[in-house]
Amino acid sequence: MKKILILALIFNFLFSILNLSFAQSSGSNSPYSRYGWGLLADEAMGFNKGMGGVALGMRDINIINPQNPAAYSEMDSLTFLFDAGISLQNCRMQAGSTKKNVQNSTLDYIAAAFRLRKGLGFSLGLRPFSTIGYSFSATSDMDDIDGYGTKVASSSYVGSGGLHELYGGVGWRVFKPLSVGMNMKYVWGDYSHSSSVSYSESSIRSLNRNYKANLNALCFDFGLQYSQRLSKKDRVTLGLSYGLGNKIDQRATLINTQSSSTGSAADTVRVGNAFELPRTMGVGLSWNHDLRWTVAADYTLQQWKDCRFPELQSGNGGNYTVTRNSFLNRQRIAAGVEFIPNPRGLKIRDHIAYRAGVAYTTPYIKVNGADGPKSYLVSLGASLPIANKYADKTSAPTVINVSAQWEHCKPSMGGAIKEDYLRLCVGITFNARWFEQWKVR
Length: 441
Fold this sequence. Notes:
Layout: H1 2-24, E1 39-40, E2 80-95, E3 98-117, E4 120-128, E5 130-142, E6 151-175, E7 178-199, E8 206-229, E9 234-243, E10 246-248, E11 252-260, E12 263-271, E13 275-277, E14 279-289, E15 293-303, E16 309-313, E17 319-323, E18 330-339, E19 353-361, E20 366-367, E21 370-371, E22 374-386, E23 398-410, E24 418-432
Antiparallel strand pairs: 1-5, 2-3, 2-24, 3-4, 4-6, 5-6, 6-7, 7-8, 8-9, 8-11, 9-14, 10-13, 11-12, 14-15, 15-18, 16-17, 18-19, 19-22, 20-21, 22-23, 23-24
C-alpha cells in the first residue's frame, strides 16, 4: 500500500502538469499533421532515444521499457524508478525555393516503476500518442468569367489536438529465461480541423468546413522476452510484442457553413462508429557483451490499412462517411548500439553510456491519394550518472539521458514539403531505494 500511495500522490501532481503541457503545445507545426490522427509520437524513453528507439529486446534493472512490458520483470526489489523526458526541436520545411524554420518544445513522457514481488514488476506512465498542430494559408487568382475583373480566392487551414495515453502494466518472470507482460492503456483525445475559402467579391459565397471528434478507448498490449546467456560475458534477448487495437464507437462531426453578404447557412453531419486503432506487432533482438556493449535491432508493424476513419468523399457526391482506405500499414526498422567504458569502475566517467542508432519508418497517412512522407532518423546520445545521497554502491545513481536526433521526412510526391528535424531530447531517471527496510542494531 505504501508503494501505491506514493505513486498516486506523484501521478496526481504530474497528471495536471502533463495536461497543461498538452494544452499549451501540440508539439507539431507540420502540415502533415492535418491527416489522420496527426504525427504519431515517438514511443522511446530516455535510455533508447539515442539508440534509434530500439526497445523490444532491451531489459535492465535501471530502465523503464513500456514498449515491451515483459521488461518490467527485471526490476530490482528495493528500487523505485521515476523517469521524465522533454524534447526541443527545430523543423526546417522546404517546398521548392521556399524555406521556413519552426520550433517546438514538448513533454515526452513521465513514468514510474518498481517491483511488486520477486519476478513481478509494475509500471505506470503518461505519454502522447499523436499530435496535431498546423496553420497555413494560400491565395490564388480566379479567371474573369463575368467581365467584372479578376477575383482573389483565399484559403486557410488550421488544426489542433491529438491523442494521449495513460498506461499501467505488469511484467512477470515465468521462469529464469522467459518473461511475459501486459500494458492496459487508456487512450483519449480530440481533434479539430478547419478549412475555409473566401473571395474578394463579397457576393460569392465563402465556405467553411469544421471537422471535430472526441475519442476515448481501452487498449491492451502484450510482450514477451526470452533472455539466454551464451557465455559468462554474453547474453542474447529476444523480444516480441503484440497490441490488440480497438474498434471505437465515438462519433465524428462535420459542420459546413456557407456565407455571403446576403446571409449564411450551416448544416451538420455526424457519423457513428467512426474510428479504429490498429493492431501492432513487433520483434526485437539484443546482444550484451561483458556489460559494456549492447547491440539491438527492432522491426514493428502497425496495421492501419483497414482501420476505420471518417472522410469526405469528394468523388461520391461529397458524402461524409466512414472509410477503411484512408491509411497505410506502417513499418519501422531500427538499430542501435550502446557502449559503457567500465561498468565495474569506481569513477563516474567509467559508467557514462555512449549511444548511437538509426531508424527508417514508412508512412501511415495518404496525402491527396499518394503515400505520405517516409522518415529517416539518425541519433546520438549519452547517459550521465549523477551521484546522490539515495544511491549506494549496489544501486545505480540517478542518470541524465541526453540525445540528439536528426530526422528527414521525404514525401513521395514531387514538389511536396520536405521536413528536416533537429531534436534535442533530455530525460532524467531517478533511481532511489525508497522501499529499503532500515534496521537499528
